Amino acid sequence: SRELFVLTYGALVAQLCKDYEKDEDVNTCLDRMGYAIGIRLIDDFLARSSVKRCRSYSETADMIAQVAFKMYLGVTPSVSCSSAAGNEFSLILDKNPLVDFVEELPAERASLCYCNLLCGVIRGALEMVHLAAEVTFLQDRLKGDAVTEIGITFLRKAEDRKHRRN
Amino acid sequence: MAIFSVYVVNKAGGLIYQLDHYMPRSDTEKTFSYPLDLVLRPRDERVVVAFGQRDGIRVGHAVLAINGAEVNGRFTADGKDVLEFLSNPANYPVSIRFGRHRLSSNEKLMLASMFHSLFAIGSQLSPEVGSSGIEMLETDTFKLHCFQTLTGIKFVVLADPRQAGIDALLRKIYEIYSDFALKNPFYSLEMPIRCELFDQNLKLALEVAEKAGSFGPGS
């Protein structure tokens, strides 16, 4: 059923390309959809993996790469920290199942982020555990880069004492 | 052994799901002749026994039905005031059913919010950082188990004190919630859960937990 999922995703992106002219619109749409999935997926992830609360950003990034990606996509990206402050990380995917059947982006869609849904999912999931983050594609194999790299920048932790559980 | 009820509380403290799985019934119905030897008093929209406990009718029990017809708060089914009705010797002999009153849904909502606040206070009181909050509240008649997820949803189960395996049950309820409530595209987050599949699977899980659970004497 992995194939069905990949094909469905492809059909979704193709339809969005037909519906919207500008690449940014398609990217935003994918991100929004990913966000809606992420806010629900997080509970499924936590229920099935019974992981403990992460105590640092690097633990969180490791968790996403090693447990979550493995559980849902079957791949394990490698994590590297790319800032001295310790709040910027990148996940490097050498194998991306979503683009199994995609050769390259069409010429008129040069700035389309094909897997932008993933960014939305990660952003939504992190928000539900009170970690605000910005997630974008730093490199994309479909655009000619060597690897596919997702960058996660953790923003200042929301000072929300009402829901803080230390 | 029994699991009495399940409550699911959202991030803001609102009750989004409630199930009464097993409520021990302690109703007593008796026929009385004038004059009534129980002292009845109105309280909170109900007529409650204030004194004269006997034969299974305890202080605090409410009048549930008169002559078979359920009372509506302080009024009988035909609209007469219960205390007036019972002070008139012409209405005797009368059969009255007493019992512990059920919580109304408003009361449950209020209690859930109150528990949410107590839970927050509990986490703050902890001398160590990183407290899990209230996990269990124990009384002689029931144990309340609570599990808060990392996303802020609380699952609360009230069970018999001898019932074991509630921790596993709470994790299972979390899985059922993530499967049947969250994956339902028409369910909005933080709203009351009205999903048939969630109900069914939850009841199944409760039954499994009850059977597999404790090793105390059968009830």
What layout of secondary structure does this protein have?
The complex is a heterodimer of chains A (166) and B (219).
Chain A: H1 2-19, H2 23-49, H3 57-73, E1 78-81, E2 88-93, H4 116-128, E3 133-139, E4 148-154
Antiparallel strand pairs in A: 1-2, 2-4, 3-4
Helix pairs in contact in A: 1-2, 2-4
Chain B: E1 3-9, E2 15-20, E3 28-32, E4 39-43, E5 46-51, E6 62-66, E7 69-70, H1 82-87, E8 94-99, H2 105-125, E9 136-138, E10 143-148, E11 154-159, H3 166-182, H4 196-212
Antiparallel strand pairs in B: 1-2, 1-11, 3-8, 4-5, 6-7, 6-8, 9-10, 10-11
Helix pairs in contact in B: 3-4
Keywords (chain A): Endoplasmic reticulum, ER-Golgi transport, Golgi apparatus, Lipoprotein, Palmitate, Transport
Protein name (chain A): Trafficking protein particle complex subunit 3-like protein
InterPro entries (chain A): Bet3, NO_sig/Golgi_transp_ligand-bd, TRAPP_component
Give a verbal description of the structure:
The complex is a heterodimer of chains A (166) and B (219). Chain A contains four helices and four strands; from the N terminus they run αααββαββ. Chain A is of the alpha+beta class and 166 residues long. Chain A has a single domain (2-154), classed as Trafficking protein particle complex subunit 3 (Muramoyl-pentapeptide Carboxypeptidase, domain 2, 2-Layer Sandwich). In chain A, α1 (2-19) packs antiparallel against α2 (23-49) and α2 crosses α4. The longest helix of chain A has 27 residues, at 23-49. Chains A and B meet through α2 of A and α3 of B.
